[in-house]
Specification:
Length: 56
């Protein structure tokens, strides 16, 4: 049971830090989200390209 409570506490702290980061540095937070989105998009495009090459 102690581990579950520790997981909840760590989760809440992580969420609190993200919210704090967004409130104190919104421009940097937006840039980080854009960067993560670009990375995910590039990864998805690479996977699509891979499967297209398998089919062709």
């Amino acid at each position: 049971m102690g581990v579950v409570n520790l997981k909840k506490i760590v989760g809440f702290l992580a969420i609190a830090l993200v919210v704090f980061y967004i409130f104190t540095q919104p421009d940097s937070a937006a840039g980080s989200i854009e960067s993560i989105g670009a990375t995910l998009r590039n990864g998805a495009e690479s996977v699509i390209r891979f499967f297209n090459q398998l089919v062709v």
